[in-house]
Write a structure and sequence with these properties.
The protein is of the alpha+beta class. The protein has a domain of 78 residues. It is 45% helix and 17% strand. The chain is built from eleven helices and eleven strands. Strands 3, 4, 5, 6, 9, 10 and 11 form a seven-stranded mixed beta sheet that branches. Strands 1-2 form a two-stranded parallel sheet. Strands 7-8 form a two-stranded antiparallel ribbon. A hairpin with a 6-residue loop joins strand 5 and strand 6. The longest helix has 27 residues. The protein starts with a helix and ends in a 5-residue tail after the last helix.
Length: 310
């Protein structure tokens, strides 16, 4: 947290406010922020209400025209805000922006340049693990932004809606990205907007009981809410294969059988609610099935082009 707030204080673009949403921390974080960063606005929950609820509360409290979401385990490059502001105000057609997220410890390695969503229904970080080089120098359209470092026009949240609080954590940004794309909004990767990401500091690692449960549950929720019926049937073999891959990874390899099946059961329980949301989302869809299909295929191409051998 201290590294993140220091980096925001050191931005060369000064017209910004900083809001910290605390999800029931008990380690003295809020007292430290009040003492060390007195200009920071604090929204404090008494208990952990999930990433989606915390982010939504911050968005509601923000006073500016643009919203930058940052995880507490990132360090922002001094030019981050300036590059993002220039990118969104220079006449381009992007409605929200993905930052270049680099590995905090191995700073030549990419953590992600935005999020992709392939036909098998498993969101991924574009370029994860690759060494930064010429293939990542250019701005490009991507399916969406990782909410750990993403920049939005605030009016988008009035049109697309806020993050789904039923997700609690994980894949809430994939869900929001999908909804935005269905309504015709575009995301662009901005290579000069750089943050350095430590990764999974709050949840205790990339794979554990918590992450497996929410990843499995919410991966299914994203598909149930957003994939148009025609594509859902067309790509059901791919989607099934993606689910089998997750089963082998989380259960056979990692041994998280309980968390995996709890996630599946919870997804089934939430299905009626997700289907009600699906009806509203599909009713707002502004792009054709063919256009969405092209976006999904382009995501797959970006994953192949940005493998760790780039």
């Amino acid at each position: 947290m201290e590294t993140c707030l220091n980096s925001l204080n050191n931005q060369d673009f000064s017209k910004h406010e900083v809001i910290v949403v605390d999800n029931g921390s008990t380690d003295g974080s809020m007292e430290f922020i009040k003492r060390r960063f007195p200009k920071t606005k604090i929204v404090a929950f008494e208990e952990n209400r999930g990433f989606s609820r915390a982010v939504n509360e911050g968005i509601k409290r923000a006073e500016g025209k643009y919203i930058l979401l940052l995880n507490n385990d990132v360090e922002a490059d001094p030019g981050l805000l300036r590059h993002l502001h220039e990118a969104v105000t220079n006449g381009g057609d992007a409605d929200f922006l993905a930052c270049r997220m680099m590995d905090f410890r191995s700073r030549e390695l990419i953590d992600g340049i935005g999020d992709g969503f392939p036909r098998k229904g498993k969101a991924f970080r574009i370029g994860h693990g690759a060494t930064y080089g010429p293939s990542f120098h250019q701005r490009r359209r991507v399916f969406g932004a990782c909410a750990g470092a993403a920049f939005y026009k605030k009016t988008l949240f009035e049109k697309v809606g806020l993050f789904d609080e039923d997700f609690f954590a994980y894949h809430e940004d994939a869900d929001w990205n999908f909804r935005a794309n269905l309504m015709g909004y575009r995301c662009q990767y901005v290579p000069h907007a750089v943050v350095y990401h430590m990764g999974s500091r709050t949840t205790g690692g990339l794979i554990n009981e918590f992450t497996v449960f929410y990843n499995i549950r919410n991966m299914i929720n994203v598909i149930a809410k957003n994939m148009p019926t025609v594509l859902l049937f067309k790509y059901s073999p791919r989607i099934l294969r993606g689910q089998v891959e997750s089963f082998f990874r989380y259960c056979v390899v990692e041994g998280y059988w309980g968390a995996y099946f709890r996630g599946l059961c919870e997804a089934v329980k939430l299905a009626p609610k997700m289907l009600r949301k699906r009806a509203k989302i599909q009713g707002k869809r502004a792009i054709s099935t063919m256009q969405l299909n092209r976006l999904l295929i382009e995501s797959e191409k970006q994953k192949e082009a940005c493998s760790p051998i780039c």
